[in-house]
């Protein structure tokens, strides 16, 4: 009889130990350490601001103890950040804020330290229309007329863009491939630089995202939008034709969203996706994210992946043409 209590205690301890051994590795997630939300661009930029606005609402909808911290790993069109996320432990504590087209286009034209196919998309947060912007005094009134003029006089029009992997860089090169028009490309380090060049008449036009030129007519030098490079007219630009309407199949939005390495357990991915969807509907987020309100466009990871897959043939063709023509910049 005197042995009953020790035996029961030992048995109870064994059961508890066995239960802990059987618990999934992700059982404590997301409460036992901070989640890194990794941004591949510098602090203060559009992607960084979006991530910092989203983070507190994501953690609110994950759990009371969740803590999301934004970590900037700028450089190489997001490649440094993407590589960092894919090298991290597959425990759900490292999440990428990815940008397309850089994420899925750059590996087609050069060696990158990450594999876009190794990402599991959580969901798209925003879809920012890619725009062709001119000064208000530009002689061009439609994309169709612009292309006709440039085909008649090659390289007579200069267009600023933010690098080969940017949405503008991809849109310009796909447009040249689709139309046969040879524009003069002028690369810039960012839209701030290219806007100054456009307003100073150093370039004829630029590619930019809508968030960079939300009020073209209100700029110091009045601007206007010649065309938008999206599937359908953006709700905030109902009077601006798409490139497809003008006869050119060029669809290159600037999308941003969340992704993790495919090694992260499905259960964690599902929780992240549920929290993201809830965060984007949260009245507090919508109030805080007024600067992005026009472009918030949630899609779950599977639907967003379908969009990326649909764009791959066009991007692959573009990459092959850039390699064939020797127009790729030096690594």
UniProtKB/TrEMBL annotation:
It comes from the Bacteria. The keyword Signal applies. InterPro entries: BUG, Bug_dom1. Keywords: Signal. CDD domains: PBP2_Bug_TTT. The keyword Signal applies. Belongs to the UPF0065 (bug) family. This is Receptor.
């Amino acid at each position: 009889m005197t042995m009953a209590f020790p035996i029961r205690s030992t048995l109870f301890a064994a059961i508890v130990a066995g239960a802990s051994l059987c618990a999934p590795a992700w059982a404590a997630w997301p409460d036992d350490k901070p989640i890194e939300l990794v941004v591949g661009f510098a602090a203060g930029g559009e992607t960084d601001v979006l991530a910092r606005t989203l983070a507190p609402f994501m953690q609110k909808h994950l759990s009371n103890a969740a803590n999301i911290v934004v970590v900037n790993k700028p450089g190489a069109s997001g490649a440094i950040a993407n590589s960092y996320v894919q090298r991290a432990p597959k425990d759900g504590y490292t999440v990428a804020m990815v940008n397309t087209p850089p994420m899925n286009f750059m590996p087609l034209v050069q060696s990158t330290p990450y594999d876009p196919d190794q990402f599991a998309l959580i969901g798209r947060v925003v879809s920012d229309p890619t725009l062709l912007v001119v000064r208000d005094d530009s002689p061009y009134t439609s994309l169709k007329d612009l292309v006709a003029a440039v085909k008649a006089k090659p390289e007579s029009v200069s267009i600023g863009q933010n690098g080969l992997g940017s949405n503008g860089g991809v849109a310009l090169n796909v447009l040249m491939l689709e139309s046969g028009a040879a524009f003069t490309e002028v690369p810039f380090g960012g839209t701030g630089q290219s806007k100054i060049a456009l307003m100073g008449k150093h370039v004829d036009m630029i590619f930019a995202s809508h968030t960079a030129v939300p009020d073209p007519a209100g700029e110091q030098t009045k601007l206007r939008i010649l065309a938008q490079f999206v599937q359908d007219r953006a709700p905030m630009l109902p009077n601006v034709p798409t490139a497809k309407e003008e006869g050119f199949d060029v669809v290159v939005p600037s999308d941003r969203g969340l992704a993790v390495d495919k090694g992260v357990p499905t259960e964690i991915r599902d929780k992240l996706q549920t929290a993201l969807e809830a965060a984007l509907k949260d009245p507090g987020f919508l109030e805080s994210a007024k600067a992005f309100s026009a472009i918030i466009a949630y899609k779950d990871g599977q639907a967003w992946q379908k969009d990326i897959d649909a764009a791959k043939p066009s991007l692959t063709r573009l990459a092959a043409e850039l390699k064939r023509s020797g127009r790729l910049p030096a690594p």
